[in-house]
Inverse folding.
């Protein structure tokens, strides 16, 4: 009986020490992780809308028309010199084949895609992970990447469906469909918001 109690106390002490250590590590790494996320976000916004633009975060993200597509943040894109809105960027989360995919979707005021940037991706290496691989071309002749093919598409006029007007990644149909759906749904939500706001 004494050995059982001793064993239980030892386990409890180990669990307490481990939990305390994890809490300290979390407190130390949290601001670093947040700073890296912010840097990735700012870099992504600038890549999607390159130029002299200001990104104004909305207090409340715009609504998605599809429950499988979550829009977690929305940014109006303003020309710094004129202060006119030239488009919008949505931070989007869609279900991938392995884990949720987080990305930025930029749409111009005319409904065309200005760019798509993956922020978090944990898809299968060599397959779905090629979604943000800058050296993986779905159109080798013209050196167009999977994400690059969305640029210039119109979310109101184009279907944005893999194997129709979107070239799917080889062996990664689920990832291709997830990203395409995210772009389409977020794009339509942005266009709807801009129209309702008269912009």
């Amino acid at each position: 009986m004494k050995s059982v109690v001793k064993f239980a106390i030892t386990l409890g002490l180990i669990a307490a020490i481990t939990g305390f250590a994890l809490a300290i590590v979390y407190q130390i790494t949290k601001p670093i992780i947040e700073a890296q996320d912010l840097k990735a976000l700012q870099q992504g916004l600038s890549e999607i809308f390159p130029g002299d633009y200001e990104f104004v975060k909305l207090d409340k993200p715009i609504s998605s028309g599809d429950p499988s597509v979550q829009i977690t943040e929305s940014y109006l894109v303003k020309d710094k010199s004129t202060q006119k809105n030239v488009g919008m960027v949505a931070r989007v989360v869609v279900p991938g084949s392995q884990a949720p995919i987080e990305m930025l979707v930029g749409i111009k005021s005319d409904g065309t895609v200005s760019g798509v940037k993956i922020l978090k991706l944990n898809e299968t290496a060599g397959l779905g992970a090629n979604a943000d691989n800058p050296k993986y071309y779905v159109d080798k002749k013209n050196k167009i990447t999977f994400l690059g093919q969305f640029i210039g598409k119109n979310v109101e006029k184009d279907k944005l469906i893999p194997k129709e007007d979107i070239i799917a990644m080889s062996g990664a149909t689920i990832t291709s469909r997830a990203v395409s759906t995210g772009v389409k749904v977020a794009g339509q939500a942005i266009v709807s918001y801009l129209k309702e706001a008269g912009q």
Remarks:
- Strands lie at 53-57, 70-79, 85-95, 100-108, 113-120, 137-139, 144-145.
- The longest strand covers residues 85-95.
- The helical segments are 2-48, 173-196.
